[in-house]
Every structure is written in C-alpha cells, then in structure tokens.
Design a protein that fits this description.
The chain is mainly α. It contains ten helices and no strands. The chain has one domain. The chain is globular and about 65 Å long.
C-alpha cells in the first residue's frame, strides 16, 4: 500500500470521525494498539533509511545516486502525516468526549515520532538541496500541499480544542470550520465528497506510486480501519487497495460475534 492510499483513508477518517469520537464500541483501544505497533515499526524503518541517506550524501559516490530512494522515503513520510494527524486528532477527541484516557498516549507517541522523522527528512533534503534543487522543490511543494489538505480535513472532525493541536495552521482551520457552519448539511456532504476526490487526484499527480514500506503501511491502515464499525463505509467508501482490509475486518467481526454467541449458549 502506498502513502497516497493512507492519505485517502485519512480523509475518510475525518469525514466519519464522529463514529469513533462519540461511539461506545469497546473495540477501538485494542485496534489502536495494532495501529501503534505498526506505526512504531515503520518509524524504525524510516530511521534506518534516513541514517543511510545521511551517510550517502556525506560520502559521495559517483557510481551511486541515492536521490530516487530518498524521494520515495521522504514522500511517504510527508504524505502519510495527513493520516497520522487526523487519526491522532480523532483519538484524542474520542478521549475528550468519552472522558477517558484510553487512546491519548497512543496518539501522542505516534505523532511525536512522525514529526521527528519528518524534521530529520527535511534536514536531509535541505543539506542536499544544492546537489538536487528539483527534488528539494518537489518535496517542499508536496509538504505545503499536505499541510493545507490536513487542515481542510481537520475541519471536518468534531470540534475539540485538544484535537486542534494537530492542525498546521489554526487560523486556516478556523476559516475552514466557518465555511462548514455556513453550509447546509447537504452542501457539506457534497463538498466532502469533492474534497476526497480532489485529494486523490492531487496526490496522484504529485507523488510516485512506489511505496517505501508497503506492508507496514497496510498494517497501519488496518489498525485505523478496525477502529470503525463495519457499516461505516459502503463499497465506494474506501480506495480499492484498502477494501480487502475492510472485508477482513467484517469477517473478523462476524467470527467474534459467533464466538460470543457460542460462549453465551454454553453457559445455559
């Protein structure tokens, strides 16, 4: 799974976040731990890759061009930050409205780790800017686009001051929320669908389709998706590459229900 798909999942998380924030399903804490575990493994992978890139740029070898690999990893870090921030905001908003502290620590740990990886990646790009201006400009433009998209989708979440810390620009977030309040429910839904389609188109035009960590990205996505009830997304609600995860979740939910029924019957 590539980072663009993770960003698309992040956009649907924002639109359907009320289900997680206000819901009473006891499953999210367990599912969020799976998200945390996969995210931590990916952070470690990024750290090793970035360390290698630092060495490659320092010890220049005319027979080795590290830039294609650098761009793939940096793109993944930048684009997947959209999902990290939106899901973190949703989890902390969940704790606020549920008056619990089940998800706050998981969200905070992943977010901090992602920011550290991003800052390190940007420092590498900055140090190597003179050697590849075009790559630096592409990554910087991508960073700016992701920041705007993140704030736009952040405005679709239930208002929560604790969750607002994950926005890039609180003034921009306020403006987006004001637009939402001035729109009817039907207008808001239509705009959200347009936002999702525009995000997908924008990212596909800006980023490579090659993922740095496809399996870990899939595990991160599975951890996120499993926090939501199975009926939250219809067949058109997720990118094609994520629908199999949703099918697997539906099967797991059915199996858990059957196990509960069998346990209940055995007690009679």
């Amino acid at each position: 799974m590539n980072a663009q798909t993770l960003a698309e999942i992040g956009s649907w998380v924002a639109i359907h976040s009320a289900t997680l924030v206000y819901g009473t399903d006891p499953q999210p804490p367990l599912s969020a731990k799976a998200y945390w575990t996969a995210s931590k493994c990916r952070l470690q992978r990024w750290s090793r890759s970035l360390k290698m890139f630092e060495r490659d740029l320092l010890e220049k070898n005319p027979d080795h061009n590290p830039w294609p690999a650098i761009e793939i990893v940096v793109q993944e870090i930048l684009i997947s930050e959209l999902l990290t921030r939106l899901f973190s905001a949703a989890m902390i908003s969940h704790d606020f409205y549920q008056r619990s502290d089940e998800l706050h620590g998981l969200a905070h740990g992943v977010h901090v780790g992602h920011i550290e990886a991003k800052n390190r990646a940007l420092r590498i790009m900055l140090k190597g800017q003179s050697a590849n201006e075009e790559a630096f400009d592409r990554m910087n433009a991508l960073r700016r686009r992701i920041e705007r998209w993140t704030d736009l989708f952040m405005a679709q979440l239930p208002v929560c001051e604790d969750g607002d810390q994950f926005a890039f620009d609180k003034g921009r977030l306020h403006d987006y929320r004001l637009e939402n309040r001035q729109s009817s429910h039907e207008e808001k839904l239509q705009r959200q669908l347009a936002f999702v389609a525009s995000l997908s188109s924008d990212l596909n035009s800006l980023a490579t389709q090659f993922p740095a960590n496809p399996e870990l990205n899939r595990q991160v996505a599975a951890g996120v998706i499993s926090c939501f009830p199975t009926d939250r997304f219809d067949s058109l609600g997720l990118p094609k590459s994520a629908r199999m995860i949703w099918i697997e979740k539906a099967q797991l939910d059915t199996q858990m229900l059957m196990d509960d029924l069998m346990e209940f019957e055995s007690q009679d």
